Amino acid sequence: MAEHGTDVGALLATLHGQWVEAVDPAPHPALVMSGAAVLHGALQTPTGAPARDDARVLGAHLTTCSLATDGTLTLLLADEDGSRPMPLVVAPPWDLALPGGAELVASRDGRVSPRPGSPGPRFATAEAMREWASAAPDAVERDVLEAADDDWVTPADVVDALVERGVREPREVARRGVLALARLVARGDLEAGTIGEHGFVPAEGDPASSIEHLAALWSALGGIGRLPGPGQIAWFSLTDAGRARRAAEAD
């Protein structure tokens, strides 16, 4: 990797430990990782191109990646415990888009060009957080709060609420879905997290960090024409403030 420069190596290193959220072989092959990185190119496994949401690839973790002098990028995928290792290879040309605007582009001749990203949030800026926190819940947000009163919710619940209102185009679903969850989290009605062995585990970091990750990853999925399924991106739990809002609206 040294032949391509240290900037290239540093950008690729940010992929380590991420897992595959979605893989789509057509019309423009793309792989989306949990940190909102999107790799476009002719993806190949030892048995050929992966199928849409290939079970061998979906959910697999990236353990290492290597970049040959001819621009061929190899991602070594495996289960979380390191089992079932499998290389995923993409020959140039390819494009790897990273959060914050960073990007790696491999031309047909194997030349790899890095573009650094911009520091700071792209979505959850201080101004946006203030605006979201002061906004009153709309109909979609109230539907999500109602669902969260019974169980943990995911972006898929927001998709359902939007589809019921006739919103189906993935990019528009992403735009409006991110806005709904961003308001709910910024307002303190929901908190983001994961589901562990003993139930809901709140996300580390502040609400802005959770919203930034949500927005980056959902936008990446929307960019390849995908709607998030149940459990994708993050889980959300109703807070005491959200429960009080639900009770007040019920009175």
Structure, described:
This protein is 33% helix and 24% strand. It has 251 residues and is an alpha+beta fold. It has two domains: 2-115, no CATH class; 126-250. The strands form three sheets. The chain has a six-stranded antiparallel β-sheet with strand order 1-2-3-8-9-10, with helices on both faces. Strands 4-7-6-5 form a four-stranded antiparallel β-sheet, with no helix packed on it. Strand 9 and strand 10 (112-115) form a beta hairpin. It is elongated.
Can you give me a brief rundown of this structure?
The chain is of the alpha+beta class. The chain has helices at residues 6-13, 126-134, 139-148, 155-164, 170-187, 207-223, 240-250; strands at 20-24, 30-33, 38-40, 43-44, 61-67, 73-78, 86-90, 94-97, 103-106, 112-115, 190-196, 199-202, 235-238. The protein is built from seven helices and 13 strands.
Fold blueprint:
Layout: H1 6-13, E1 20-24, E2 30-33, E3 38-40, E4 43-44, E5 61-67, E6 73-78, E7 86-90, E8 94-97, E9 103-106, E10 112-115, H2 126-134, H3 139-148, H4 155-164, H5 170-187, E11 190-196, E12 199-202, H6 207-223, E13 235-238, H7 240-250
Antiparallel strand pairs: 1-2, 2-3, 3-8, 4-7, 5-6, 6-7, 8-9, 9-10, 11-12, 11-13
Helix pairs in contact: 2-5, 3-4, 4-5, 5-6
